[in-house]
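Please check this today:
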Amino acid sequence: MKTTKKAKLNLFDVILIVAVAAIVTALLLKVTYFNKSEAAENRVTVEFTVYDIMNVTATAAKSGNVYLRDDTVVGTVNGASILQSRVYLTGDDGKIERYATPLEKKDLVGKMTLSGIMKNTGFYVGGKQRITVGATLPVYIFNPATGNGASVEITVDSITPIS
């Protein structure tokens, strides 16, 4: 004689089915709704300054592609000037005087075009790193034509959207 076993559905099975359904629903919602970028890619012109660097570093970072620390290309340097670093000290007579910096350090001043996402909270370079006026941003500038490059920390002087 054949005996047939009936499958029983207990409380543990119901909990497991509900958990699997919740995970599948969460994944579908994430992929469908929450993973979409709200803003399109934007381009901005950033005026920047790199303070107190060696002349060799300033020359290498004067032009080229701009990379974030994770090797993401986010823009290009449009033009930069190398200036003598300025140090101002107050003398004994109270007069402010300009002095040469040790090792003849330089400042690099210029403009770069950066790509990123403009959100309500600010501009995100490469969609990752938020910048504001006065903020510093560590970047690597590499010129493929010359093979020169340098890792510098820029100070953002202004951010202007490109229409």
Q: What stands out?
A: The chain has a mean pLDDT of 86.
